[in-house]
């Protein structure tokens, strides 16, 4: 029993160490949401890391932890402005905010001619049988749209009663 208690205590300590690891997280300045797939480059332009779906930094295995601090990094994402940060520590929990890129779209006018179709409305009843016995039926109103030029006819069930 005493050995089991020691083992449990050691296991809890190890798991607590994993949960308390440093997190460098990037979020949007306006919406405070995590920024996934953010690329992180060192001052030489080499990719040294990225962010996961929670915006937390994942460094690549190229010796980032061994580099001299403070570490100048530039972050890049298609939806956010590029920004350079100076990381003074890789062990503390840190939160950085990025500004969204302005997305100004040109005005577009869309015009489309509606397709000419013939609309047929009708009533239907469908009887389902099994071994020559009626099991159930469904009925309702159906609309058929038949194009005047070319194309496949389409239909829509409006009311269905089972």
UniProtKB/TrEMBL annotation:
Listed A to Z, the keywords are: Signal
Does the record bear Signal in its keywords?
Answer: yes
**Signal peptide location:** 1-29
Lineage, top-rank taxon, reads: Bacteria
| Name recorded for this polypeptide | TonB-linked outer membrane protein, SusC/RagA family
Q: Which organism is it from?
A: Sphingobacterium multivorum
């Amino acid at each position: 029993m005493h050995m089991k208690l020691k083992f449990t205590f050691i296991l809890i300590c190890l798991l607590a160490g994993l949960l308390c690891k440093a997190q460098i997280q990037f979020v949007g300045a306006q919406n405070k949401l995590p920024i996934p797939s953010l690329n992180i480059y060192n001052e030489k332009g080499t990719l040294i890391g990225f962010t996961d779906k929670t915006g937390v930094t994942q460094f690549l295995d190229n010796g980032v932890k061994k580099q001299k601090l403070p570490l100048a990094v530039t972050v890049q994402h298609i939806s956010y402005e590029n920004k350079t940060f100076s990381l003074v520590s890789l062990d503390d929990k840190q939160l950085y905010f990025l500004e969204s890129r302005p997305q100004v779209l040109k005005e577009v006018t869309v015009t489309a001619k509606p397709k000419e179709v013939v609309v047929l409305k009708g009533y239907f009843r469908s009887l389902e049988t099994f071994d020559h016995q009626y099991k159930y039926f469904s009925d309702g109103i159906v609309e058929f749209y038949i194009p005047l030029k070319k194309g496949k006819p389409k239909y829509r069930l409006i009311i269905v009663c089972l």
